[in-house]
Design brief:
Keywords: DNA integration, DNA recombination, DNA-binding. With 523 residues, the chain is mainly alpha-helical. 48% of the residues lie in helices and 8% in strands.
């Protein structure tokens, strides 16, 4: 019988082998190209490249060799890679492709840090965790990160019923901010095991805008704060002073409830904010609990000054309601622990405010607004308000204090408006104190105003532009003596004609803010 002749291949070889159980398979291999050893010198390349896995017939083995031959023939500049490098890249692809949104979000939450490298506060983690649990994980938790597209993000966005649910827009915007932060990290930060980022580009393309605040800030008057404090004291003696701590010193309610005897320096009239109540997530119970932590920011942990009458309130409270130890809580529970914000609101604050006309919609945090607005109405500069409220930036103060007392606004507007009395009467023809010539022969200023041409007030202090310039100069001078926030409020409430005459003489910042406010109101 003639011996079967072995088929000779021009590239590589295929060898028949058997598993331990006797099953036959074929191993295809070929010599590693000589140029590969220098190109991948960091790898310990074998002398031969073997097909990943094993073929059960020669057809598959021959096909693999044919494909490899074409790649090797292209040389060092081709797309050939060592088999071991391909296996490594495949494992990385599997690692990248196997990461779901829920898994990455947990890793992101555990490793988050601030821009300065410090870990984010536990309270911030709790807020992110609530958004994930309530709005993000239910929709996209099981989706792979690489599969989340702008279309999927849009579908998630559309699940919020903002038309019929008044709270949906705010919840959606807050959750979207967390989603954007997560996807930004996935795009820009390396992921363990893949030597690169998890996704190529963030799928968050929606240009969201923060919806209008659902709660309109209420500023409490001194009379209202007095009534609120009395009503709270009727429910629990000593708790009423919190209305003054928030409404005049500007502390947050969490900072107020975390005060201790040692934080009050009666000798120097200073209150030290050293801690605040913090909401944290309990891994054991799966619930959010209240603990005592550090203030919101480094700037928040700062001294707050108070005057002699506030000192009298503190003196009486410390004497009658606080234990003598320096670490004794100012507002303890019956068990001697810190009072939670929920207990404070439900047991004392909310029942008391319902008895005070005008404070039905007053929130504990409105006290902080009230304190800032009260300071500004009494002549404090934005920088002083920034220090008293312990903001990190004065721009935050301007944005934060978006309201002033309505009565104060009207008083300022009236004082400014009174300066225009003579000019307005003359324009209307009611002023009989002018000389006869002034009534019969209009001045160049009044002529240009009648013709619709803006009146120049380039030199209001000296009245260089005529009689109206002198009057307007007095208005401008008085406006300049006020803070920019009050200037903006007054100018927005002026009629268009008067505003057009006064505005050019004020700073560019005031002009820009007035125009922005007018546009906002128009929209």
């Amino acid at each position: 019988m003639a011996r079967q002749r072995r088929h000779r291949r021009k590239f590589g070889k295929v060898e028949a082998r058997r598993y331990k159980d006797g099953t036959k398979y074929y191993d295809a291999s070929y010599p590693t190209p000589s140029w590969a050893f220098s190109k991948w010198s960091e790898l310990d390349l074998p002398t031969r490249q073997h097909m990943p896995g094993f073929a059960t017939d020669t057809t598959r083995a021959d096909g693999w060799l044919a494909d490899e031959y074409e790649k090797v023939k292209a040389g060092p500049d081709g797309d050939w890679k060592p088999v071991q490098l391909r296996k490594l890249e495949a494992r990385k692809r599997d690692a990248r492709n196997g990461v779901t949104f829920a898994a990455y979000a947990q890793t992101w939450l555990d490793t988050r840090r601030k821009a300065n490298g410090e870990p984010i506060k536990e309270s911030s983690k709790t807020k992110h965790r609530e958004k994930l649990r309530n709005h993000l994980i239910p929709f996209s938790g099981g989706i792979r990160m690489v599969d989340i597209t702008p279309k999927i993000v849009q579908e998630w966005w559309d699940t919020f019923n903002t038309k019929h649910d008044p709270h949906a827009a705010g919840a959606r915007n807050a959750a979207y901010e967390t989603l954007k932060a997560i996807m930004h990290s996935a795009e820009n930060e390396t992921y363990p095991g893949i030597d690169g980022t998890l996704i190529i580009k963030s799928p968050c393309r929606i240009k969201s805008t923060r919806p209008a605040k659902r709660h309109k800030t209420v500023n409490a008057s001194t009379e209202q704060l007095t009534a609120l404090a009395d009503a709270m004291d009727a429910l629990r003696p000593g708790i009423g002073i919190t209305a003054w701590i928030t409404g005049r010193l500007g502390l947050r309610i969490g900072e107020t409830l975390a005060l201790q005897r040692g934080d009050i320096d009666m000798e120097h009239g200073v209150l030290y904010v050293r801690r605040t109540l913090t909401q944290v997530y309990d891994d054991k119970t799966g619930k959010t609990i209240t603990t005592v932590g550090t203030p919101k920011t480094k700037d928040s942990a700062a001294p707050v000054q108070f005057g002699e009458h506030m000192a009298k309130l503190f003196e009486a409270h410390l004497r009658d309601h606080v234990a003598p130890q320096p670490d004794a809580w100012l507002f303890p529970t019956k068990r001697g622990t810190t009072m939670t914000e929920a207990n404070y609101r439900d047991r004392y604050f909310n029942p008391a405010k319902k008895t005070v006309p005008g404070l039905e919609d007053y929130w504990p945090h409105d006290g902080r607004h009230t304190a800032g607005a009260y300071l500004m109405e009494h002549g404090a500069s934005p920088n002083m308000v920034k220090q008293q409220l312990r903001h990190s930036d004065v721009t935050m103060t301007n944005k934060y204090l978006d309201t002033t007392g309505e009565q104060h606004r009207r008083e300022v507007i009236k004082r400014v408006d009174d300066e225009l009395a003579g000019y307005a009467d003359r324009r209307r023809g009611d002023d009989t104190t002018d000389t006869p010539d002034a009534q019969d022969t209009p001045s160049p200023t009044s002529m240009s105003a009648s013709a619709g041409t803006p009146v120049s007030v380039s030199d209001p202090a000296t009245g260089a532009d005529g009689e109206s310039g002198g009057k307007l100069g007095m208005v401008v001078a008085q406006l300049r003596s006020l803070s920019e926030d009050v200037q903006v409020s007054v100018l927005v409430d002026m009629d268009d004609d008067r505003r057009g005459r006064v505005l050019p003489s004020l700073s560019k910042d005031v002009q820009a803010r007035v125009m922005a406010e007018l546009i906002r109101k128009a929209v």
